Amino acid sequence: xxxxxxxxxxxxxxxxxxxxxxxxxxxxxxxxxxxxxxxxxxxxxxxxxxxxxxxxxxxxxxxxxxxxxxxxxxxxxxxxxxxxxxxxxxxxxxxxxxxxxxxxxxxxxxxxxxxxxxxxxxxxxxxxxxxxxxxxxxxxxxxxxxxxxxxxxxxxxxxxxxxxxxxxxxxxxxxxxxxxxxxxxxxxxxxxxxxxxxxxxxxxxxxxxxxxxxxx
Length: 216
Known about the structure:
The chain has helices spanning 11-24, 36-45, 65-73, 88-96, 109-120, 138-148, 152-162, 167-174, 178-192, 197-205; strands spanning 2-7, 28-33, 51-55, 79-83, 102-104. By secondary structure, the chain is α/β, with parallel strands linked by helices. Helix 7 (152-162) crosses helix 9 (178-192) and helix 7 (152-162) packs across helix 10 (197-205).
């Protein structure tokens, strides 16, 4: 049986992709995640998944940091980025950072099936209009590697930090002590090669993407 994880915060889109996947293979299991927290759980529960379809804009994803996390925690599972943001540089970055391709949400069923099949076969799929953009710089690549090295808990702490939460708030949300959060922060700073909370937030913000309705 094939197994897919569909990570997207829009229920209608998850249902649409699920329908396409069942058309590809009647004997299929589709696991849904609506944000990064639930995706982390699904990855732990389903390490044998054949493919993750990942929306870069769902809550907690922080753009390409979500892709970095997946490559670090589940390198055995191929990832296909799915997004309504169709800027050509973002498409190229997705592949450069380890995705098996970029699937625009405006794609028709035939295109979706082609992209998914290419990813499953080990290939890479991009829209014909993707074009070529300048490669990511060394700083971006090192940042992606740093985020990929974070533990699941450290990644959660970093994303909460980026959302403006204080240590005591993060500790409350994760049901741990502030001392534990401080220990995570120390590890995060080391792995991202930064020295402060502000620098850590600035670092992850470099991987953020503008909302699709703001893109041109």
